[in-house]
Amino acid sequence: MSASQPLAAGADAGHGHNVLLCVCGGIAAYKAVEVLRGLQKAGCDVRVCLTADAERFVGRATFEGLCKHPVATDEYTFPESFIPHIDLSAWADAVLVVPATGNVMAKMAAGIADDMVTTTLLAVPEQTPVLVAAAMNVRMWKNAATQQNLRTLVARGVEFVMPVEGMLACGDVGEGKLAPVDEIVDAVLRRLECAVAGDLAGLSVLVTAGPTQEAIDPVRYIANRSSGKMGYAVAAEAARRGANVTLVSGPVSLAAPRGVRVVQVVSAADMAAAVTSAFPGMDVAICAAAVADYTPAHPADHKLKKAHEHIDCIQLRETQDILATLSAQKGDRVVVGFAAETNDLLQNARAKLVHKGCDLIVANDVSRSDSGFGVDTDRVSFVTAAGVEKMDTMPKADVARELLDRVVRILAQRREAAPSGEEE
Ligand code: CTP
Q: Which of 280, 192, 187, 265 is nearest to 231 (CA)?
């Protein structure tokens, strides 16, 4: 046996994909058995990794009997490999953690690798989808630390199958119950299909995100409330679907999504320069950044002193409209813009579609508490020349998925409309 080697296919391995199921120590561990069966019925070859606490809830014999592979519980006694965390993570087409405890979520967010499951999770290749179905007591789930870890992991491209409300094992009622087994299995299959079908595979996608900062002097600037979450969610989803993604980001406090090339910029001028130089190689551009419309015309090279300099009257000049610039030179490429509005949402969005010349505007009502800057959900409408589609309030990750579905449709329509011989 070599130090690191491909693992063998299982006796029941069908036409499907390899899924690594990481089981943690929670009462919902028994549901992981049903998840395993659901994945197998869909044709997946499943291997299992257990934490020591998981084994106290469900014995390894149950998992071994079903998956017909040795179950990995520690680094030193795995019969198939000398380096199980490397070989298991390399073998997997998708990794699923179920049930994920608050402890394992915290370790994932911090990059701690102190047992078989967390060491394996740290070794998962960047392009391999990681899904997490969490289950825990409602107070543990709502705890600010867990919610912060959730945001960190989502920003890195980890997909959560969110816990649902219900009667918990401890008797408390609230959010924290493991999502239904079917929903977890479906989420994995959807990701695997995406990873394989890769409806954006081979395409290059440019995304802008975040605010820009416009210098008044070396210490002061003009900016806006954009958190960058929407653009980052779009970039993460495009990468998941196989695109080669470049994310041009203003200053935000978000981690780079998995598999995405991030170009950090500060001002609207920096963003315009980065975007226009990247655009020639792109198939799609999605402008989610809240670019400053105006910038100080004469930024000072020293800190202005309020006693004797004019901080109360800053002369501004308009910035370059990046979206309009890209749209003017787009040719067959698909260009998408956002419209963040507090009033007359659709009217303003339609006007932006026309005067910016893009293919699609995502209209976002930022006056709502469940939509816009800083929150994790949005209530958007997709506006094209063909009409308006109003969506319900949904997580930004779902908005990203819906948006890219529409981009894929526009690309397909373009290909169909292209005279034969022009198709690749
Ligand atoms: N945008 C851009 N460059 C700018 C300003 C805006 O690329 N200098 C893009 C944004 O990324 C977004 C779209 O234009 O996709 C609409 O931005 P928004 O701020 O809603 O509209 P504005 O054009 O700035 O118009 P207004 O502020 O008057 O609503």
A: 265
363 in contact with ligand 1, CB cutoff 6 A: no
271 lines ligand 1 (CB under 6 A): no
Considering the entire predicted model, what is its pTM? 0.67
Q: Is 227 in the pocket of ligand 1 (CB under 6 A)?
A: no
Residues contacting residue 278 through CB under 8 Å, at least 6 positions apart = 206, 246, 248, 263
How far apart are the CA of 174 and the centre of ligand 1, in A? Answer: 41
Residue 214 to residue 306: CA distance in whole angstroms: 19
Q: In this structure, which residue's CA is closest to atom 4 in ligand 1?
A: 321
Neighbours of 140 (CB within 10 A): 18
What is the widest separation between alpha-carbon atoms in the chain? 81
Q: Can you tell me which atom of ligand 1 is nearest the CA of 275?
A: 7
290-336 per-position pLDDT tens digit: 999 999 999 999 999 988 887 888 999 999 999 999 999 999 999 99
Place of tokens 């943690």: 24
